[in-house]
Amino acid sequence: MVPFTRSLINHSIAEATAVFARFGLALPPWAYWTPAEWASQGQTCDEIRVCMLGWDVTDFGSGDFPKIGRTLFTLRNGTTRHAGYPKTYAQKYLCNPERQRAPAHFHRAKMEDICCLAGGNMLVQIQAAGPDDRPVDTPLVVKVDGIARTLTAGEIVRLRPGQSICIPPRTVHQFWGEAGTGFTVSGEVSSVCDDWNDNAFLVDYGVRFPTITEDAPRTHYLCHEYPASVV
Question: Among the CATH numbers 2.60.120.10, 3.40.50.300, 3.40.50.170, 3.10.20.90, which is that of 6-201?
Answer without folding.
Answer: 2.60.120.10
